[in-house]
Design goal:
Elements: E1 2-8, H1 13-16, H2 30-45, E2 52-55, H3 59-71, E3 79-81, H4 98-105, H5 107-115, H6 153-173, E4 177-182, H7 184-194, E5 213-217, E6 223-228, H8 232-243
Parallel strand pairs: 1-4, 2-3, 2-4
Antiparallel strand pairs: 1-5, 5-6
Helix pairs in contact: 2-3, 4-5, 6-7
Amino acid sequence: MHRLVLIRHGESEWNKANLFTGWTDVDLSEKGLQEAAEAGIALKEAGFQFEYAYTSFLKRAIKTLNIVLEKMDQLWIPVEKSWRLNEKHYGALQGFNKAEMTEKYGPEKIKQWRRSYDIRPESLTDDDERNPALDPRYKNIDDPMAKPHTEALCDTIARIIPYWENVILPKVKSSNDIIIAAHGNSLRGIIKVLKNISDEDIIGLNLPTGIPYVFEFDDNMQLQKDYFLADEEKVKALMDAVANQGNKK
């Protein structure tokens, strides 16, 4: 059996403040630190022994992974970081309150920008300080996908799939347990492929922060089952909270 664990980072300071975050490098909140610790304890109790780990270039995901591995006494395992696992870039929305933007643009427009498959938020300008091309993490990367001014979910998935197919998937096939600590939208891209979810249906998937999502495969890499490592009612409540973020300040 081969097991892949996906975990969205714990609550960040901007999650807590209900701000669009995207590629902004925001730290974990106190709640987020606790969520990561609880996830690590749950994974240890469930008997996971990770052989390799992947995460993004953003510290909320990196710290979540580090805390999980620390609680499991597995900080020694190899970890690979990739910008391709970054969150969807929210363009000019980044840093603004979701409820306030909903009041300004209307709930339907914000829903499209947040959840549609191919509608992008308003783009950054080249001289905007939020432009990834001005960030030392990305400015020397030749791939233009590493310097987005805005993204729709389809763009996020397009940059993730080659990395999934060429880097992560072969490691999953040759290992027992692998973990990816990343972000709501980047993980949705992987889940879309794993479960063959349509462009329309992937819009309705909301991932809770800090809850391990487990995928089990047979030796032919056929998916046998997938489940959250948490109580179903808790997971549903957290998913609903993510879906309703545009309604609260």
